[in-house]
Amino acid sequence: MLEDLTIKNFALLDSVYIEFSKGFTVLSGETGAGKSILIGALSFLLGGKAGVEQIRSGASEASVTGTFLLPPVNNLDKLGIKKNPEGEMEARTARQWLSIHSIESEDDRIIIRRYIRDNGKSAAWIGSTPVTRADLQSFCFFLVDIHGQHEHQSLLKVPEHRKYLDSYAGLTETVSKFTEKYAVLVDKRKKLAALNTSDKEKNQKIDLLTFAIKEIEDAKLKQNEDTELETEQAKLSSFEKLFSEVETISSILSGDDGSGMVDLSKKLRSASDRACNLDGSLKEIDSRIENVFYEVNDIASEIKNYSRGLVFDPERFAFVQDRLSLIYNLKKKYCSNVNAPLKELFSYLENSKAELESLSNSEQDIAALSKEVAEIEKDVYKSAKEISSARLNAGKGLSKCIEEILQQLGMKGTKFDVNIQEKPGTEVVQKCGPYGLDNIEFLISANPGSPLLPLAKIASGGELSRVMLALKTVFAKEEGVPTMIFDEIDTGIGGEVAVSVGSHIKKLALNRQIFCITHLASIAVYADNQIKIEKGTNNATTSTTVRPVTGSERVAEIARMLSGDSASPESLKHAQAMLEKFA
Q1: DSSP output for 44-113
Q2: What is the DSSP letter of 33?
Q3: According to CATH, what is the number of the domain 1-70+105-143+481-548?
Q4: Number of Cβ within a 10 Å radius of residue 236
């Protein structure tokens, strides 16, 4: 449960600290006051998008901090942390996540903090531990579920229906493993199809591979040979200039007229030695001059040896150029580009040998791979049938649950059906996909006697919102997320329907914390707590304030939501009556 929130310099929010209670909390205010900014700040805290545009004008940093009371220890906590097929620990609860990441809570509470600076840098902490955005999202998944303003549109995307059903049926992980198994089958089928090419195509491929292997092997290449040859070519191409510079160095070091650095360092060494004999304080300098003397003589000797061996070999130069030209042509034919590292050519050679061997033994490989594919197909089909059976059973339960909730939400007589059909196939080949055998789509009949049709064809915005609320209600029972946030769940509804929605959310909030942004008084009056968001201007600066309203202030806010007039006796009386009846 979210206990408090501290927001600084986020959008129009200057400095906000607000405490929250359990149960149903409504966020209200004039259009444009900034209600969604508060949800945006919370979404940012939970790992949502971070951008410099979120920083309040004139500030250099925006930050949001929240204190969360962890859910009580449940059965999943008692079962312990499970491991995935790779042996990695996977959290199933918030407490398990903290344990895996060695983060300790205090009094069953954890503080989360996140900031974004005007240079684009952002950071986050869970407790006193810095975490990545991915880790933040992973942890907060167990704490808060935000239903965005346009999320109900996902119901119009039929592929999403399969995900909802699998989640309800507890099949998400099972289907994920099935998808991995199916991917292996697809890969094996591709390899089998490649082996089952015509004799003509196979022989052509063998000829091409044989030629390529011979051409590369005949070159007798060595590791890093290309870079070594390029270095040598650069040296030979600039031989005259190099020889001239070396001669200059040699002349400076060992000049014939006694002015070379060798002779000068010798004279310097003798003078220093004599001076040191006259004044012992020059001993350290004398030692350094001695080092210079030996270093200059050593350099002169090495440069002389280098100069003696510096001979231009036109035959070697031609060999280097021819060798580099050969390597260039091989890379051009068999590598991704002519500048690719030589190891890419060696890799192509090894792969070609393996493919040639595979093609040469294709008859045996085809038989073995065909057998393997048949076994995997049998296993995949068996798993797909088991998933399909589980979906059929779960689909009936989900349909019933959704219908019951929709009745409570003012959609009496509505029929909701999780339509599950096997993908089309034949008696010989059963069509299967990465998620199993089934095509899944939600159908609805919003009016008694009307046929069941896809949601996209008949559902209005208000109906979609209520179907999504029903789904959220079902999954709230399954997932046990302690805090839920509905951003404008009242889209397209009003009157008695809004009363039904408010009543339903109130019941849903008996066992969890729920926040709801709404414009409708008939929803707001059901709330246990109400927070008002107001926008104002002070010293030419626009800011948004957030504060709880109770007593007469809440009556006035409900009156404003009813008629736009928070002062008239009639509106206040009506608001007071609604609060007394529904709160």
Answers
A1: HHTT----GGGBPTT-SEEEEEEEEEPPPP-HHHHH--EE-TTS-EE-SSHHHHHHHTT---BTTEEEEE
A2: S
A3: 3.40.50.300
A4: 16
Q: Which two tokens stand for residue 330?
A: 């091989």
The pLDDT profile of the chain, 583 residues, written as one tens digit per residue, is 999 999 999 988 888 999 999 899 999 888 777 778 888 899 999 998 889 999 998 899 999 999 999 988 877 766 667 665 556 777 878 888 998 899 998 999 999 999 999 999 999 999 999 999 999 998 998 898 887 655 556 667 888 889 889 988 988 889 988 998 998 998 888 888 877 776 677 778 888 999 999 999 998 999 888 888 888 888 888 888 888 888 888 888 887 676 788 888 888 889 988 999 888 888 999 899 999 989 989 998 888 888 887 777 788 888 888 999 999 999 999 998 888 889 999 999 999 998 888 777 666 777 888 888 989 989 999 999 999 999 999 999 999 999 988 888 888 888 999 999 988 875 545 688 899 999 999 998 877 878 888 877 765 666 777 787 888 888 776 556 788 888 767 777 777 888 888 888 888 888 889 998 888 888 899 999 999 988 877 776 777 888 899 898 999 988 998 877 777 888 888 889 888 887 7
Q: Are 520 and 497 in contact (CB under 8 A)?
A: no
Q: Is 364 exposed, middle or buried (0-12, 13-18, 19+ CB in 10 A)?
A: exposed
DSSP letter for 235, please.
Answer: H
> What does the block give as tokens for 286?
């004398």
Q: Is 553 exposed, middle or buried (0-12, 13-18, 19+ CB in 10 A)?
A: middle
Q: Please work out, in degrees rounded to the nearest 5, the angle formed at the alpha carbon of residue 134 by the alpha carbons of 163 and 125.
A: 135
- In angstroms, rounded to a whole number, what is the distance separating the alpha carbons of residues 525 and 79? 41
Task: Identify whether the C-beta of residue 435 lies closer than 8 Å to the C-beta of residue 175.
Answer: yes
| Coil, strand or helix at 486 | strand
The domains of the chain are located at 1-70+105-143+481-548, 218-356, 556-583
CB 5 within 8 A of CB 64: yes
Burial 145-175 (b: 16+ CB within 10 A, else e): bbbeeebbebbeeeeebbbbbbbbbebeebb
Q: What are phi and psi of 573, to 5 degrees?
A: -65, -40
CA torsion 361→364→367→373, rounded to 10°?
-60
**Separation between Cα atoms, residue 564 and residue 562, nearest integer Å:** 6
DSSP structure string for 163-175:
HHHHHHHT-HHHH
Q: Check residue 121 and report its DSSP letter.
A: -
Q: Show the beta-strand stretches assigned E in 153-273.
A: none
- The pTM of the whole model exceeds 0.70: no
Q: Torsion angle of alpha carbons 486, 490, 492, 498, nearest 10°? A: 150
Contact indicator for 131, 97 with CB cutoff of 8 Å = no
CA dihedral 436, 437, 439, 443 (to 10 degrees): -100
